[in-house]
From TrEMBL:
Keyword Transmembrane: yes
Protein name stated in the entry: G-protein coupled receptors family 1 profile domain-containing protein
Membrane topology label: Multi-pass membrane protein
Location, primary (coarse class): membrane
CDD domains: 7tmA_TAARs
Amino acid sequence: MMLESLLEAELCFPQLSNSSCKKIMRPSTTSVFLYITLSFISLITVALNMLVIISISHFKQLHTPTNLLLLSLAVSDFLVGFLVIFQILLIDGCWYLGDLMCIVYNILDYVITTASVETMVLISIDCYVAICDPFQYPNKVTQKRVCICVSVCWIFSFLFVFVVMKENLGEPGSFNSCSGECVVVFDQIAGLVDILFFFIGPVTTIIVLYLKVFVVAVSQVRSIRSHVATVRLQGSVRVTAKKSELKSARTLGVLGVAFLICLCPYFCLTLTGQETMFSASSFAFVLFYFNSCLNPLIYALFYPWFRKSVKLIFTLKILKTGSSDANIA
């Protein structure tokens, strides 16, 4: 009798002893740590990215092409914060929400993740054009073009997810080996396209563009230092403008590097076929989602406008008439 009770405690659905999945058994302290860590990441991710969304949406001065890209990234990061809640439910390795919700969750996860990856590619392109072709930047990178590119990214993510998950949509749960499992399967072609378009391709593009930006930025810094002592007033204005561009590029570069550091371990484990839900790869999984919390912290560290806007939000000054026209740059 005691043995039966122990076996039931290890099952996701004790009433389905023959078909139920087994729970992941771990020390209670480890489970509590995971609960607290993921809950903290979820709360902070939602709160910080909400501040970014409010800031860029409310203040007209922040309606720049670069900030529109940051807004798209903040929206995806904000939604990731809610997705972490589902992962909290999966700490013991059991899915209790049914097969249909499993598919819905995976679709949302796929769309948000791929849109985030595509947005990071757009941010790297924006940084590249701003540093390597600054004179043509205002003509090449406009608000209208950025809005179109962002819209295409999200629409493409929505459409492509139904292509890669077509086998799972017809009969949800058909690939589950036991009750309490949440599994989706891609066919070989869809999996290959997914890896090329949403991992290898984007990562390669981001690395190549940022390396080019780094080379040009170093060259410009040397140029500024060699002329800073002899420039006239008009020249000093140009130098100041260049320094501003380099600072912005540095911030976007930090954003890109952080993204790659958090993204690559997760995808590398996925490519090797290892389980990514709180097993040996738990660190890579948490790191992947922590990136959505890290991005607003980078803005707070490097962007004065974000710190000023947050101050106005917490003091409720954004509720005043004309607050959207405030100078916070």
